Amino acid sequence: MRIPEKPPVGLHIEKLRREDFDKLRPYLNAANSEYLHWDELKINDQFKDIDLKKLWTFIEFSRSFDSRTIGINGLRLRYIQTPNIEKTLHELDMRVAGKIEKDLEAKMGVELQKKYLVNSLMEEAIASSQLEGASTSRLVAKKMLRENRKPRTRSEQMILNNYITMRYIKEHVESNQKLTFDLIREIHKRITNDTLDDKKYEGAFRTTNDIKVFSRDGRQQIIYDPPEYSQIDQLLEQVCNFVNGESTEYYLHPFVKAMVLHYMIGWIHPFFDGNGRTARALFYWYLLAQNYDYLEYVAISTAINNAPAQYTRAYLYAETDNNDVTYFVKFNLHAMDIAITSFEKYIEKTKEENKRIFETIRRNPKMNFRQADLIISLSKSEQSITIYEMKERYNTTYQTARTDLFDLTERGYLHKLSRGKQFVFVLDKERCLQDKAL
Question: Which of 21, 73, 179, 397 is the most exposed place for a label (fewest CB within 10 A)?
Fold first, then answer.
């Protein structure tokens, strides 16, 4: 990956003439509306016939008036809430806090909510691990998680760790919970279990400056050199203060604050490895701690994983432009919009699924929701299922999953087979059609 060019030092604003400003005003508005980096200006055709250095001078001058400074140990991050960002935040807030909640209640039964929550946690775990190099496919990874199979590779271990960590966060997060060193270490320890060169690095801050960030294009190009390890404690202490406190000078929306936390962990790079996964897990933790409960259904890393180069570039844009995290916020808001849109489409799709499930129950009143949904799912995939997979799929106890499957077997809808030490259940499609279960 080519490292973005650092913006030039602007001209002295007082040396520019009024006619320069009048001429460049439309371009200034366009650049700020899209919040373009210097590197983007140079390749954008709408700016090809103008003096870019003069334009950048006006851009920097205008942005300085709206800048919100976040001071960390002498480092000054800046964030600018553009009209587009403000509009996006409002729209996402309305969708997450209002529409999703109502749609979940109206269109998804409790059992489908449980099923989708498990699926979204798996998607998040897989995508976040793939961003850090895990090479296992989604299908193989999901099968491993659902079957409770032991990981066979480091990539599979990464995904399992991420999944366990996401569930740990969901089960232990508290409203307005404070960020602490212990929480950061605990998340990192869980997320890197048995994936590092030495167990002692799990949950431990780095003690050397040998850590570099390389490009993912195979060229082994250093694209980022983190701060001195001796600064980590002081930097993280101030990160905790930032997350746990409220500025008296300005307000940061929780989405923005979560994204700044994500950026800061990536920038500090406090661990030998696993910094990206830890940063994304803390992003998820913070939003749940701020009572955005329904975001647990939204796999944001999946959207990020579909644009890994843009994700890396958002970091680099911020770093090369005096740690202006607006670029990083802009990218992550776009990823969040994509992820939420995907979830909204799924909710619409479940309306038809629910109709079919309830019709199956109507014709077979002894079936519960999970059993009816399972029968329909197996008829589509023609796969088998184990008791553990049933437990994971519907987020139930082992005993409930066992009872569901044995009951369907006794009534002839499933066949019970042995595979090693466990039972495997397969669909008797003819019996299901005969009893109008499909």
Answer: 397
Instruction: Identify whether residues 91 and 140 lie together within a single domain.
Output: yes
> How far apart are the C-alpha atoms of 141 and 302, rounded to whole Å?
14
Asked if the model's pLDDT at residue 112 lies above 60, the reply is yes
pTM: 0.86
What pLDDT, on the 0 to 100 scale, is given for residue 297?
Answer: 78
| Mean pLDDT for all residues in the chain | 88
Identify whether the C-beta of residue 85 lies closer than 8 Å to the C-beta of residue 332: no
SS3 category, 270: coil
Identify residue 26 by its one-letter amino acid code: P
The pLDDT score that the predictor gives to residue 103 is 57
Q: 225 and 91 share a domain?
A: yes
Q: What does the alpha-carbon distance between residue 408 and residue 399 come to, in Å, rounded to a whole number? A: 14
Distance between CA atoms of residues 247 and 153, nearest Å: 45
Task: Give CA separation, 12 vs 31, 58, 180, 299, 359, in Å.
Answer: 20, 10, 44, 46, 73
Residues 273 and 246: their CA atoms lie apart, in Å, by: 30
Q: Does residue 206 contact residue 270 with C-beta atoms inside 8 Å? A: yes
pLDDT at res. 320: 92
The phi and psi torsions of 223 (rounded to 5 degrees) equal: -110, -10
Overall domain count for the chain: 3
**Predicted pLDDT at 432:** 78
Is residue 7 domain-resident? no
In angstroms, the CA 73 to CA 12 distance is: 29
Q: Name the 3-class secondary structure at 366.
A: coil
Residue 228 has phi, psi (to 5 degrees) of -55, 140
Q: Are 42 and 109 in a shared domain?
A: no
For helices 110-131 and 138-147, the axis angle rounded to 10 degrees is: 130
pLDDT at 104 over 70: no
**C-alpha to C-alpha distance for 149 and 140, rounded to whole angstroms:** 11
Last residue of a domain, one of 68, 87, 110: 68
Q: What is the CATH number of the domain that holds 369?
A: 1.10.10.10
